[in-house]
Automatic annotation (TrEMBL):
<comment type="similarity">
    <text>Belongs to the D-isomer specific 2-hydroxyacid dehydrogenase family.</text>
</comment>
<protein>
    <submittedName>
        <fullName>2-ketogluconate reductase</fullName>
    </submittedName>
</protein>
<feature type="domain" description="D-isomer specific 2-hydroxyacid dehydrogenase catalytic">
    <location>
        <begin position="9"/>
        <end position="315"/>
    </location>
</feature>
<keyword id="KW-0521">NADP</keyword>
<dbReference type="GO" id="GO:0030267">
    <property type="term" value="F:glyoxylate reductase (NADPH) activity"/>
</dbReference>
<dbReference type="GO" id="GO:0051287">
    <property type="term" value="F:NAD binding"/>
</dbReference>
<dbReference type="InterPro" id="IPR006139">
    <property type="entry name" value="D-isomer_2_OHA_DH_cat_dom"/>
</dbReference>
<keyword id="KW-0560">Oxidoreductase</keyword>
<dbReference type="InterPro" id="IPR006140">
    <property type="entry name" value="D-isomer_DH_NAD-bd"/>
</dbReference>
<dbReference type="GO" id="GO:0005829">
    <property type="term" value="C:cytosol"/>
</dbReference>
<dbReference type="InterPro" id="IPR036291">
    <property type="entry name" value="NAD(P)-bd_dom_sf"/>
</dbReference>
<keyword id="KW-0520">NAD</keyword>
<dbReference type="InterPro" id="IPR050223">
    <property type="entry name" value="D-isomer_2-hydroxyacid_DH"/>
</dbReference>
<dbReference type="GO" id="GO:0016618">
    <property type="term" value="F:hydroxypyruvate reductase [NAD(P)H] activity"/>
</dbReference>
<dbReference type="Pfam" id="PF00389">
    <property type="entry name" value="2-Hacid_dh"/>
</dbReference>
<dbReference type="Pfam" id="PF02826">
    <property type="entry name" value="2-Hacid_dh_C"/>
</dbReference>
<feature type="domain" description="D-isomer specific 2-hydroxyacid dehydrogenase NAD-binding">
    <location>
        <begin position="112"/>
        <end position="284"/>
    </location>
</feature>
Length: 340
């Protein structure tokens, strides 16, 4: 008897090479990127595709899913999956996975780096030295972390890892989110403006998507005030970038450190023009170590699914019961019958 053909997977954009390596020969991988005619390739393979491997910036909506009638699983490279319509996937019985935990410490480390770089003006000091200005005068004194209260918007896994690191810096910590969390010692603020008014630094680490779009608006920035600092390592969509650029330019807030932007990789010119902003090209998880771990988790989710063991890290909206035995869980054959 001949072996069944390996399930066919589609990769829409280039991903860390570990994904393809880890899938090996057990799954057949088609790559749209680099194809001479991507649309023709998509048309040819679409009827057979059972899995998608996608990066955080690749939109996957109901329209694309409808072109893939055998689709069972979308494996997203990234903990944030705002570019994948997880509800549309659930309605079609399609499982969505992301890459939590493996990047938590890396993103938290970067956040602390960005916070210190923004307050102590580390990139500006580096530019000052390279421009040969030190012999003329010492670099001007900077703001400080000392004595500041830090607010965190979104006390999830990464938010908590940031808070744990901040405890070591001897600063007060407060947070806002959908609800108070009983197991943390930090002050809860039921409104975002209330949190902004109570702290000197606001760190944004909440999920992106329509539910949080534009949350950081002119009123929140006014609440932060002239000694206020905004740090965003979540998604650019959470911030009204025009209001932020105006607030940085007119002194409504003191400084900002941004790793994410609404229309990446394009950054508004009026943010680039602000000397009191430290701007990074979305590098929160971008180390060799962590990106490889994320790539392995993408591959492991696909392999686990197609070997009938269920998804390893399904997202909240996905039609999957945590802890379900493979026998009661939707497997490759039954997945399209799963209740949304
Ligand atoms: C992405 C991220 O992995 O995990 C996330 O949500 O934003 C990053 O770590 C990055 O955008 C790679 O595509």
């Amino acid at each position: 008897m001949s072996e069944p053909a390996p399930p066919e997977i589609l990769m829409l954009r280039p991903m860390h090479p570990v994904v393809a390596e880890a899938l090996g020969a057990r799954l057949t991988l088609h790559r749209v990127d680099g194809a001479a005619d991507p649309e023709a390739l998509l048309r040819e393979v679409a009827p057979r595709i059972r899995g998608l491997a996608v990066g955080a910036q690749t939109p996957v909506d109901g329209g694309l899913m409808d072109r893939l009638p055998k689709l069972e699983i979308v494996a997203n490279f990234g903990v944030g999956y705002d570019t994948v319509d997880a509800r549309a996937a659930a309605a079609r019985g399609v499982v969505v996975t992301n890459t939590p935990d493996v990047l938590t410490d890396e993103v938290a480390d970067l956040t602390l780096g960005l916070l210190l770089a923004t307050l102590r003006r580390i990139p500006q000091a580096d530019r000052y030295l390279r421009a040969g200005r030190w012999p003329q005068a010492p670099f001007p004194l900077s703001p400080s972390l000392r004595g500041r209260r830090i607010g965190i918007l979104g006390l999830g896994r990464i938010g908590r890892a940031i808070a744990r690191r901040l405890e070591g810096f001897g600063v007060e910590i407060a947070y806002h989110g959908r609800s108070r969390q009983a197991d943390v010692p930090y002050a809860y603020h039921p409104t975002l403006v209330g949190l902004a008014e109570a702290v000197h630094v606001l760190i944004v680490v909440a999920p992106g998507g329509p539910g949080t779009a534009g949350l950081i608006d002119a009123a929140v920035l006014r609440g932060l005030g002239p000694e206020g600092v905004l740090i965003n390592v979540a998604r650019g969509s959470l911030v009204d970038e025009a209001a932020l650029a105006a607030a940085l330019a007119d002194g409504t807030i003191q400084a900002a450190g941004l790793d994410v932007f609404a229309d990446e990789p394009h950054v508004p010119a009026d943010l680039v023009a602000c000397d009191n902003a430290v701007l990074l090209p979305h590098v929160g998880s971008a180390s060799h170590h962590t990106r490889a771990a994320m790539g392995r988790l993408v591959a492991d989710n696909l392999l686990s699914w197609f070997e009938g063991r269920g998804p390893l890290t399904p997202v909240a909206e996905t039609p999957w019961k945590a802890g379900a035995e493979p026998s009661e869980a939707p497997g490759p054959e039954t997945s399209r019958k799963v209740e949304a």
